[in-house]
Amino acid sequence: MTTKLLAIVVAALILGVTVSCTAGGKSMPKDAAGLTRADVSELSLRQEFNRYREHYEEMQRVLAAAQRAVHEGEWDWNGGDDNPQIGGDGRTPLPGADVDNSYFLESSRAWTPEGATGSRGDLDRMIDYFEHRGANMHIERIADTYYLDGSVRDGWHVEYFIQPSGRYSLTVSSDLFWTNNADALARAVFGRASLRWPDRSSPGEYPEPPEWDAPIINRPRI
Description:
The chain has 222 residues and is an alpha+beta fold. Helix content is 30%, strand content 24%. The strands form three sheets. It has a seven-stranded antiparallel sheet with strand order 7-8-9-10-6-3-12, with helices on one face. Strands 4-5-11 form a three-stranded antiparallel sheet, with no helix packed on it. Strand 8 and strand 9 (156-162) form a beta hairpin.
């Protein structure tokens, strides 16, 4: 079975187990947290905001575990990671999702091992991390860069790039989450976010995500 065909089969299987049904038998797709649009429709913006914070902290736990698998020391930040990303198209299909009713989260870090040259063997620790969890993964070489990606737990994906320059990058992203209003949620988060993050940090270290009761300190630029 080809890698592309295998990816399609896996996506179909995941989609099959993330669908709920109404009393009339109509399918109700579930998001990365196992909620349907009907579930989320009952939430206030504040409740959605708190739900976002839970997802953010879960992302940081997934990221930290993957980081520690290859390097316990400090990693460079590639910008901030506390704002919801535009939804619609996700790694795993979510029927009915668009840019207005869904979002995802993503965070990246990078490090430069001493003397690293992008050797295939530098993937071994990350491969062990996936295999220890019985998780599916895919490895590909694109030009001189090795790329590994896979799902380490329901709704969360890990990507690891190693380059000949010795610059190695790690990214964690979620599947899609339902929201009643993606723009309102993004504004609520952005408005309270400090927009400050460290240049470097050890696994598990990150600024606390914004809280609902924090003052509005940022206004979107129009």
